[in-house]
């Protein structure tokens, strides 16, 4: 079995192999684009083949920017399209592709990779840990009344209703402003919008777009939604950097006529909507993980993100998949971190996947100490780590890839 990089000529073989791995068939293109694999980068794909050249596995990576705590923007490899044919599973194909990909990513200078995990037990083996979380909120229309007077949550401005085909550039602009200040958010490169790749509202699939404009007429938020035959209004995403703007958009969506229920597909766990409703139990939440993080260069990763407290922490980090184990001294002063090798006794011992989980601030070290994942070497270690990794704004990712 061999693993090699792909070229433009491999696209059809790559797509067919990937779909066969999942027991699916490639969908028919929609008008104006919309095929998710049209955004794949040929020079970042991998094919696993048998010795006689038959393809049996695929993996790829997108070139994204990830927003870290401290609103630091860094390159991130968005790992995707990972699959192995049913005839060749449990024969080391996936492990070989992951090793090959990590080697390539390090050679490119990437210090972290991210992915959306199909099966949690699989990617923990390769050092990925869940780092951002989301909730799906379902609200019956007849229980969607707000408890707070409108004046207390008013953003001012106005809401304009557009069709998806009328506002592509506006959506791209508002999303880009949002992702630059939201920890855990990924960029949406212009080519994704131009190709209609991914999921709505990036694709040209029909959607209504509620655009919020400030008092001066500038767009500062939007919600993408559709209404199906059952009367369910499904909100793909509601994008804004302002709580009051989100509230205005939520009021608009929850007040829609001829609707039985409203489903917000992807909200942060700490979103205030449930607390704003007159009936707290009206909104039914379903929580799930979303973005998983894998650190490939621990010192660089810890030195790059922003920090909200000063202190020192010695981390003993084990990376079983790559056969590496190192001890680092993390020193934080005035929001900046320095991470260097050390021989000092550790405060915490942890797996690289657990470091990935706490890296963006979405999971506290103390939680993983209590879960038995992280070993604290003295009574104050967990509290110290919690204080250092604390972020002012919880990480959240909307982008599907």
Automatic annotation (TrEMBL):
Subunit composition and interactions: Homohexamer; trimer of dimers.
Active site: 123 (proton donor), 401 (proton acceptor)
The name this protein goes by in its record: Predicted acetyltransferase
Acyltransferase found in the keyword field: yes
Family as reported in the entry's similarity comment: Belongs to the acetyltransferase Eis family.
One Gene Ontology biological process: aminoglycoside antibiotic catabolic process
Alphabetical UniProt keywords: Acyltransferase, Transferase
Organism listed in the record: Amycolatopsis saalfeldensis
